[in-house]
Specification:
By secondary structure, this protein is an alpha+beta fold. It has one domain. The chain has 5 helices and 8 strands; from the N terminus they run αβββαβββββααα. Strands 1-8-7-4 form a 4-stranded mixed β-sheet. Helix 2 (39-50) packs antiparallel against helix 3 (88-97). The protein is globular, with a radius of gyration of 16 Å. The chain starts with a helix and ends in a 15-residue tail after the last helix.
Length: 147
């Protein structure tokens, strides 16, 4: 099952992945993620992401995975437009390194264009609950061999 399909099957919202992989030794990273070369499009995408309604705000920051001198530079806040949930980490890597959001979110943002929906309080409450208590997929992503 691909990551995009998994998101569709686990609840009302789709949670955007920030990284494509996490290595236990080297940490998180990107594989062959697209870059957004057009500065106008990049600014429009970042504007949409920054305009997302606040779901969970935190003072916690993570280190930049590309520049070790930028410790505590990457924000971890959660935002939503009522359909997708993403962290400000997605926006950071888009603005700093031109790294596109995951393909499903990127398609959603392009489809939305200039529309900036503002979810109501009930939707924001459900979004916070989704982040704090994520629904479990019907099938586990990995099952140990018990033979």
């Amino acid at each position: 099952m691909d990551q995009q399909q998994e998101h569709e099957d686990v609840g009302e919202f789709r949670l955007a992945a920030v990284f494509d992989m996490v290595d236990p030794v080297t940490g998180p990273g990107f594989s062959d993620r697209a870059v957004v070369e057009d500065a106008t499009e990049r600014a429009a995408l970042a504007g949409y992401l920054r305009a997302g309604a606040e779901v969970l705000m935190t003072p916690m920051l993570m280190d930049d995975i590309f520049d070790t001198s930028r410790q505590g530079a990457v924000p971890l806040n959660y935002r939503t437009d009522g359909e997708w949930i993403w962290t400000d980490t997605v926006t950071y890597y888009l603005e700093e390194y031109d790294i596109a959001p995951e393909p499903g979110l990127l398609a959603h943002l392009r489809e939305r264009g200039d529309a900036r929906p503002q979810p109501d309080a009930a939707t924001l409450e459900r979004a916070a609950d989704f982040v704090l208590h994520p629904p479990q997929p019907a099938e586990p992503a990995w099952r140990p061999d018990t033979d």
